[in-house]
Amino acid sequence: MVRLAFPIYVELLTAVVAVSVIDLLWVSGLGESAVAAVTVATTTEYLALGLFLAVQTGLTVLVGRRDGRAPLAPLVRTGWLLWAAFSLAVAVPGVLLREPLAALLAADAPTAALTSGYYLISLAGLPVFFAQCLVDGVLKGKGNTRTPMRNALICNALVIVLDPLFIYGLGMGVQGAALATVLARLATVCLALLSLVRQAPADAPGRAPAWEIVRTGLPMSGDFLARALAGMVLVDVVARFGVAAQAGYGIGSKIMLAGVMVFYALRQATMIRTARSEPAGRPLLLGLGAGVAVAAVLNLVAAPVAGWFTADPGPAVEFLRWMTLYLVPFGGLIAAGGVLQADGRGGRLLAATLAGFAVQLPLAYTLSSWLGVTGVWLSMAAGALVSLGGAVLTPGALPGRRAGGPGSARGRGPRSTRTAAGPRSGP
Question: For 202-242, what is each residue's pLDDT tens digit?
Fold first, then answer.
């Protein structure tokens, strides 16, 4: 599990770095408005990814179920049709509405103008981003997590080189950061397509039902978007306690993201192995253990790392200390969720997530009125506990699969003992 999850962790972490930290570091020399514009624009891109996640996750699960049993080409063809539909539905309105969208999200007119300029290129480049996600989804379904990791590292290296060239060398400013990222992704997609052609050849005519792919991945997309929206609500709650508290929350969240990616890597690993009818071990215990480890490391590095971002690291450090109560149940929830998603019970996982937010958000307002910003941190822990309870109390959810369910071994033909990567290992 760790060997499978580690490349996913590197891929997730570097993908986040490529679209946020690297661009932010290079545009920081252009002033606060440029930094704010890139922050707003990359957040919007993050939400767009949440929409396409239904296609990416659906392909990963269904490719995993069919690999070695049924032709994959119909699934891949339908995936590309969905890619075209999602690209048109998201990119075209985004480009046309970029100015009002920027005005809605940016703090002032100069920042809105810069954000709109970034949107013109970044939103038009979303089809490239979605194509990369689609290819990665197919490769992961085949059990290959190293190629997506390699692609993410190559993309980051290209962004590091191209950013200063376009931002400062060609004088494009904020738009240069967007163009550098899109071109880096385009080059990476070309490499990724070569891998896809080699590992998922056109082995049969026809197409798979589009709704089957979307339905399979929709709960994961809903979970992603729900968390993003809940995070926006918490930003509003924390803002009532002043700029220092809001800045501490923002800095602490970014630091915590490096640890949280461990949980999401484990979720993808458990999802891949479950879909492929391979043993997933004890994902709940693995996730809870990862939560303890991540919390311990973040407590250890909280003060020095927060000091890199601000002269007053106190609020961020306090946030990370309290997050111990949140990270442990959250780690268990995310890691165990991969089994439910691959087994066709992603709706149950989404319901557990929404139940947690139904508890967390009212508590955030109530407890913060008594305990200050600490009440917000306690509400996050309470919401994670409720979500974890809702997920693990699902009959037969852990550690494996339901008998005869969509992702179970029962009722399915024998799997070939080899994959494109070579002999399949035993339990």
Answer: 556 667 788 888 888 888 888 888 888 887 788 778 877 87
Helix (H, G, I), strand (E, B) or coil at 31: coil
Per the DSSP assignment, residues forming a β-bridge with 422 are: 419
Kindly list the distances between the CA atom of residue 102 and the CA atoms of 22, 121, 231, in Å, as whole numbers in the listed order: 21, 13, 20
**Percent helix, percent strand, percent coil in the chain, to nearest 5:** 80, 0, 20
Sequential DSSP letters for 391-424:
HHTSTT-SSS--TTSTTSSTTSPPPPSEETTEEP
Residue 122 makes CB contacts below 8 A (sequence gap 6+) with: 41, 42, 45, 178, 181, 182
Name residues whose C-beta falls within 8 Å of residue 19's C-beta, 6 or more positions apart in sequence.
42, 45, 46, 181
pTM for this prediction:
0.77
* Cis omega (within 30 of 0) for bond into 399: yes
- The answer to whether 201 and 333 are in contact (CB under 8 A) is no
Q: In whole angstroms, what separates CA 62 from the centre of its chain?
A: 19
pLDDT digit string, tens, across residues 322-346: 999 999 999 999 988 888 888 878 7
